[in-house]
Predict the 3D structure of the following.
Amino acid sequence: MASVAPEIDNTAEIPGRRAELITGGLGFTGVTDTVAAVWERPQPPRAWYIAFGISLTLLGILGAMILYLIVNGVGVWGLNNPTAWGFDITNFVFWVGIGHAGTLISAILFLFRQKWRTSINRFAEAMTIFAVMCAGLFPGIHVGRIWLAYWLAPLPNQMAMWPNFRSPLLWDVFAVGTYFMVSLLFWYVGMIPDLATFRDRATSRTKQIIYGLLALGWNGSSRHWHRFERAYLLLAALATPLVLSVHSVVSFDFAVSQLPGWHTTIFPPYFVAGAIFGGFAMVLTLAIPARELFGLKNIITLRHLENCCKIVLVTGLMVGYAYLMEFFMAWYSGSPYEGFIFRARAGGPYAWAYWTMILCNVGASQLFWFKRARTNVWLMLAVAMAVNVGMWFERFVIIVTSLSQDFLPSSWDFYRPTLVEILTLAGSFGLFFTLFLLFCRFLPMVAMAEVKTVLPQAALTAERHPHEHVPPTRAFDYNPDEHEPPAS
Amino acid sequence: MERGDVNSRGVPEYWRSLDELADSPAFRRWVEREFPGLDALLSSGPTRRQFLRFMGASLALGGLTGCRWPKETIVPATRQSAERPPGAAVQYATALERGAVATGVLVTSYDGRPIKIEGNDKHPFSRGKTSAWMQAAILELYDPDRSPQVLQRVGQRDRPAHVRRSRAELENFLRAHFERLRGTGGVGLCVLSEPSSSPSLAQMRARFAQAFPQAEWYEYEPLSRDNERAGARLAFGRPYRTHLHLDRADVIVSLDSDFLMTHPAAVRYASDFAARRRPDASNNYDCNRLYVLESGVTVTGSVADRRIALRASELRAALEQISAAVVARLGPSSQPGPLAGAGGLRPLPEKLVASIAADLCAHRGRCAVVVGPRQPAEVHALAHWLNGLLEAHGHTITFTADPDEQRPDHWTALGALVRRIDAGQVDTLVILGGNPSYDAPADLALDRGRFDRIATSIHLSPYVNETSLLSDWHVPQAHILESWGDARAWDGTLSIVQPLIEPLYGGLTPIELLALLTNDRLTSGHDIVRRTFGELFDAGHDRARLWEQSLHDGVVPDTAWPTETPTLQAFSLGSAEPATGTELVFAEDYSVYDGRLANNAWLQEWPDPITKLTWGNAALLSPADAGRLGVQRNGDILVIEAAQSSGASTSVRIPAYVLPGHAEDSITLPIGYGRTAAGAVGDGMGVDVSPLRRSSAPYIAVAARVARTGQHCELAGTQDHHAIRSRVGDREEQARIPVLIREAELGHYRAHPDFARHVVHEPAPAPLWKEKEYDGHKWGLAIDLSACIGCGACVLACQAENNIPVVGPEEVRRGREMHWIRVDRYFRTADGMQTPGATPPVPSTVAVVHQPVTCVHCENAPCEQVCPVAATVHDEEGLNVMVYNRCVGTRYCSNNCPFKVRRFNWFYNHHGPYHPRSIRTGVTPLPVVRLPRADLTEIEKMAYNPQVTVRSRGVMEKCTFCVQRINAVKIKARNEKWPTIPDGLIQPACVQACPTEALVFGDLNDPQSRVRRLHEHPRAYELLAELNLKSRTRYLARIRNTGAGHDSDALPGNERHGERGT
C-alpha cells in the first residue's frame, strides 16, 4: 500500500471501548477541511483526469452505439428467437442491483443507527443514482420501437388505454421509477447542509450562485435542522421498503413468467441479497481508490471497509445458499424442464458462464472470513472486482441459459453478443464513471454534517454539559443511545 | 427500345438521358470489370414505362375496359357473382407445370394482381392441395431479377457485351434468320427444349418440323424420370407411365423413391397415403405399412414404418433378395421374368427380407413396390416383375402409355446434341427454357467453348441465366402465371394455363416464340392454345362451351389417358456389382429443384424438411462416415473428387451435414445450388455439384476421394444449431421427444386407444377465478401427426398469405427466421445421436418425427399477461391476436411463450440489411451508421396480400389463424344472413395447402365440426398441457405400423410410455 500517511488500523475490537470511526484526530473543522479540500483544490489529481478521459470516451461510445441501434434496429444486437433478451436486460438487472447498496446504507443503516455509515453514505447514494440511471437506459433502448418506449408509462391518451397492469415489466417501470425518485430526493435532501457549506466556502461568484441555489437558502438554524432531520427520517423510512421492493419487482420479471429457470419463488429474496452483495462490492470498488485519491483515509477508514467486507461475506453466503437451493428445488419439484435447465447451466453450452459466476460470487468472497483479507485493500479490491463480474454473470446465466433452452428442443438456439452489445455494456460504465467522477469533483463526497455527529466530540459535548438546555421541539434524537431524552 | 444502339466503334452516337450515358463503353467496361457478365442486368431494372404498363393492365383486369385486355377472353373460375367490387379477391384456375407434369391450381387475384396460389379441388392431382414450390410461384412472378429485355451478345467472343434490343429488332432478326434457314430446310438448326406436356407445344413442334424438316429437336432436363421409362421398356417392351393407387395399398415397399415429395404426382400421392394413416375405431384401425429402403433420408423415408438405410447402389441387390424371398413363398411363377439371378451381394439381413416378403405375400393385390427415378432401369423392371407377381398390377399400380414413346432419354438427347455441336454441325441453336450451361453434367456441359462452335444461339429464359450469358440472343420468357398455354397432369388430364396478369416484363412463351420462328399466322399464345384445343376436340363437342368450362374448372373433362394393361416379357437383368468406394448420390433439392428456383427467396429460406438447412446445400453423410472423415460438426468443409477415366480430376468443396439415418459409405449431394447467374438472391448460395456429375452416372456415382479440408463454414439451419448442442441437451432432447410427439405402435394403440393422454400426468388445476367462456365461435386447430409427412407446404403457404418477410442466410444463422408455422423435425435414436461406426454396418434404426408448430392460441396465454402495453390480447372468439400498432417490442411475450412461435422484426425486414438483395444492391446513405437496405421495387410490392398488414421494424408478429380469412367468411355470412358458418369453409393458409389434411381448422363450439371431433379423438393430446395453457391446438398422436414380431427394433421411446410425469 503506497500511501503517504501510514494507515491507522481502527479495526480492532477492544471490549469496553468504541473504536474511533474517524481517525487522524480530525475535529469538526478537520472533517470539513478534509472533505472540502477535494473540491477546493484548483486541479483534481492527474488520476482523475485519466479516469475522466477514459470514462468520457466510453460515454461517447455508448452514444454512438445507441445511435447505431436506433438507426438500424435491435437486430444489431445478437439476440435471436428463443433468446429475446440478452445483454440488454442483463445489464439492466446488474445496474439496478448496484443501485441497491446506496439506499441500503443511507436508509436502513440509518434507521438501525449504524454510525459507520456516515462516512460512505453520500457517495454510495450517488452510486445508486448513477447506477439506476444506467439501469433505466437499457429497458428504454432495448424495445423494438424506441420512439414509442413512453407507452410503458400510464399516460392519458386518445385511445383511453392504460398499460397492462398485469405485466411485470410495468411493475418494473413503477418500481424503478419510484426508487430512482426517492433515492434522488434522499440524496439531495441529505446533501443540503453540505451544499450550504460549499456555498459558504465558495471563492467565486459563479460557485456562490450555483451552490447557493442548490443549498435552498440553508442557514443552519435550529428550525432548519429540525425540518431537515424530520424530512431525512421520513425519507429514510420511505426508502427502506423500496430497497427491498425494487429488486423484488425486478425479479418478478423472471419469477412471474413461466420459463424454466425463471419461474421460481426464491427469486425476490435471492435477488435482494444478490443486489446488496453486488452493491457493496461496487461500494468497495469505488471507495478504495477514492479515499486514496482524495485523501479521505481518515474519514473512510479501514474499519468502514472491513464492515463492507463483512456484508459482502454474509450476502455472498446468502447468494451461495440460493444457488444451492435452486438446484434442490429443481430436483425436488420433479419438473423435467426445471431439472434440465439447471443441468444445462452447470454442464451445457453456457457452463463457462455458470462456473465463472460460482467462482466469483461464492468462491471469491470466502476470502473475507480472514481478517487479513478484510484489512488488505488490494485483496478487497480484487474480491470486489470479482464479485462485480460474478454478479453480472449471475444475471447473464439466469437470463440467457433459461431462454436459450426452454420447452421445445427445436427452438433451442445459442445467443452470442455482437460487438455492439459489448461496447454498449462498456459504454454504460462510461456513463456511470463520468457521472461519478463529476460528482467527486463538484459535490461533497462525504456527508460532512453527518460525520461530525459521530465524532467523539459530538457526544462529549452533550456529556460535558448535561444540564444544557435542550430545545423541547427536538422530538427525536439521532443518537438515542447516548442522549437520554430530557426529563420533563 | 431504341436506346443503347452502338455504332461500329461501340460508342453511342448521342444520348438523351443519364441512363443512356450509363450505356457508354467506359461505363460498360467498368461494369464488366466489376460484375463480369452481369452488365446488362445491372443497368436495367423495371422502368417507369413498365411500371405504368402493368399498373394499366391491373386496372384493366379490375373489371374496367382496358385497351388491350379484352382482345382475349378469359373466363374465370370465379367463385362469386359477376359484379366484381374493387378490392375483392377473385380466383382463377390455371396450372403449374414442372418436369413436364402439370398440377391444377386456383390463383387468388386482387384487382388484377395475383397474390396467392391454392390447389384446385377439381384437379385430380391437386384436389385443393398444393406443395411448397407451387406456393412459391407467386414470388417468382414478381421477381425484379426476371429478365425484362431482349439481349443480344455483341463484341468479341472472349469479351462479350450484351446490348438491349427491342422486340421489333428481335422479330426482324428472327424473320430474316429463319427465312434463310427455311430455304435450306433447317440444316444445322437444332432446338433444345425442356420437356413439356403441352399439346400446343407439341403442335407447334410439329409445325416447326414441317417448316424445317432437316432440323433436330432435343429434350433435356437435369432431373428426369427416364429410368422409369427405360425400366418399363425393359419389362414390358414399351415405356409405360406408372400410376400408384396408394389409397388401395396396404403394404408399400419403396426403394429410393420419394413419392410423397418429389414425384410429380406427390400432392395426390401424399393425400392417398395419408388417407390410410388415420387408424381409429371407426375404420377398424386401418393403417397401411410403408417400408423404405434408401440411402439418404427423404420425406418419404421419414414417415416410413420401417426405414432401412442402404447405399443406393445396393438397392438392386436388396430388391433381388426380396424378390427371391417372394418367389420362395409363392412358388414358381408362370409369368416371364428376369433371366439373370441375384448377385452375390446380400445387403439386407435375412430376417428382414423374410418379414418384408411375408408382408408382401400376405397382401397380394393390396401391395406395391415402388422404385425411385435414380435407380437404373433394371431395378424398375425387376419391381414391375415383382409387382406382377404380387398381383399389384391393375390394383395398386396401373399403367398408361408414355406420352412420347419414341423420344430418346434426356441424357442421350443432350449427348447427341453435344456431339453435333462438337462436330460443328450446329449452325443455329434455339434453347427453349432450361439452363444447360449450368445444370448439364460435366462431360456434356454447354460451356463457352461449345457455344463458340454455334453460329447463332437463341435462349428463351425467364432469367438472364448462365446459358443466356453465353447465347447470342436472350429472349425473356413469360412466367406461367402470365402465359397462355396448356399442360397435362401425370395421368394426362389436360388443363388450360391462363394468364393472371399481362406479362410484367413483356416475355414470350415457348409457343409464341415457335410461332415467330415458323412464321405462324397466329402469334398470340391464346390463339395458338385455342387452335390446339380445337384440333384436340372435334366438331362433335360444343367447343366454345367446353373451352369456357375447362377454363372455369381448370381441367378439361375426360382427358386422362386410358389405362393400359401391359404384359410382362422376359428380360435380362445383366450383372451389376456395386462399385466400391464412397458412393455419391445426386439428389433433387427440395427447395430449388434443379436450380431453376434458386432466385426464389421464399424457397431459399424454406427449411429443408429433413436437414432444416436454408440458403444452400451440404454433403449429407452418416455419423459413421463423419467420424471416419474427422468431421467434427456440421459445416466442416469436405473436398470431393469425382472418379473419372480421363486424367483430369474435378473436385468440389462442400460443407458436410451429418444426417442421422443416412446410409454409410454414401454421400448425398443436392443439386441446384452454387448458381452464378441466378439473380441477386440465388447467386453464390450453396455449392454447385454438377462438376462431379457425368452423363454416364448422372444420379449415382463413385467418389475418387473424399477428405476433410479443415475449413469450416456455418450452415444456415433453423434447427439443431451447433453451438447450443451439448451432451446434457442431447440427452434431454431424446427424453423429451416421446412426450412432445407421442407415438405408439398400431397394436399398442388398438389396445390402449387413449395412450396419448397418459404419457404425462396432467392434473386439471381448479381455476382460481371464473374463466372466460366462449359462447360464439371458438376457433381451434387439430394436427394429426400420423398424417403429417413434414413436407413443409404449410410453411410456404403461410409465408405467401401473411406477407412474411425473408431475412437472409446471415439472419437465419442468428436464429431470426420469421416463419409463423414451422415443422419441427427430430431424429430419435435408441442409442443417442451418434451411431458408432459399427462393422459390418447395420441398418440404422433412426426414426424421424415431424411436428408442425404454430401459435396454439392458448386461452391462458402466457404472452398476453406479460405484455406491458397490452399489444397482445384475446378476442371474443379466443384468438390470441397481436396488435402490431400497439407493440413497442419488449419481446417479453416471446420469452414467455413455451412454443417460441412468436417472431420479432429485428430490423425492417422487407429487404432487411442481411437480405441478399440488400447486401448486393442496397444503398447506405450513412455508411457507418446505417446498414444497407434495398428498397422494395414497385413490382415486389405487388406480391403482398392486401388483407394482411406489413409489419414494421421492432414489432412482434405471429400466427393469427389467418384472421383475415375468418373475417372474410364472417362478413359474408352476416351479409347473406347464413344461419351458421359451414364447417371447413374457413381455412387458414396452412390448412388449405396441407396435402395430407393433417391440419384441420374449425369451430370447437360446433359439435359437428371436424376439428371438434378430432379434439375429442382418443389420440388427441395437448402439447405442454401440464402448463395449463388451455391451448386451442391439439395434436393427434402418431401411429406407426411396424408390424408384429419386430420388437427388436421397436421404436425407441415407445417403451418409455407412462414413465414420465411432471
In short: Residues 168-201 of chain A form the longest helix (34 residues). The CA atoms of residues 361 and 387 of chain A lie 5 Å apart. Residues 28-306+421-459 of chain A form a domain with the Formate dehydrogenase/DMSO reductase fold fold (CATH 1.20.1630). Chain A is about 65% helix and 0% strand.
